[in-house]
């Protein structure tokens, strides 16, 4: 009974704080995925461009941020960002250390990591578009913006959904590392609860179960989105 009270929603329970922490984890992951989508789109465009310099830059980005440990990237972003903020504050007359907000640092770091993986997802999705459709679109006089709106955009989105779902799951798990910056996410709150109650096994099991609930629910959403996209995909040239 005492153990149930610890994870419950009563005055002495940690249930409410754990749910809030789970919501914080979702927020960090969602913002990181958005940042990664922007970076990944730009990097994918660079790797598909005809410029050797842009391809080199894109390849370097994906190689570095997929090869360096995620925790190291989080440290670099957090402490590097804090140093930059401190330098700016000093230049404006403020004194002392100014730390980068934990949420911003965590979302940016996980977003940079996510962007490296999303770049490959978008690149692969673009290459999966039948070349005949692109050639036919050019033959009937479609300009670039119309080709993107009618053919490239919808098909890249459809082909990319499974890969983006995998990247989301990776980002959701990577967000646990953000706890090192002091952000009260699910991992950090589980650690604090375990240390306060000395029930480490209990709270880490509860934290793990909450992560499984989040990943399972997310997987259902992406699977449903993939089925809907495949079912409703129009014939692009026919509707042009």
TrEMBL record:
PROSITE patterns: ABC_TM1. It holds the Pfam family BPD_transp_1. SUPFAM superfamilies: MetI-like (SSF161098). Gene3D superfamilies: MetI-like (1.10.3720.10). It is found in: Cell inner membrane; Cell membrane. The keyword Ligase does not apply. This is Octopine/nopaline transport system permease protein. The chain crosses the membrane at residues 12-45, 72-92, 98-117, 201-222. The lineage of its organism: Bacteria, Pseudomonadati, Pseudomonadota, Alphaproteobacteria, Hyphomicrobiales. Belongs to the binding-protein-dependent transport system permease family. HisMQ subfamily. Its main location: membrane. PANTHER family: ARGININE ABC TRANSPORTER PERMEASE PROTEIN ARTQ, CATIONIC AMINO ACID TRANSPORTER, MEMBRANE COMPONENT. Residues 22-222 form the ABC transmembrane type-1 domain. Keywords: Cell inner membrane, Cell membrane, Membrane, Transmembrane, Transmembrane helix, Transport. InterPro entries: AA_ABC_transptr_permease_3TM, ABC_transp_permease_HisMQ, MetI-like, MetI-like_sf. It is a multi-pass membrane protein. Coiled coil: none annotated.
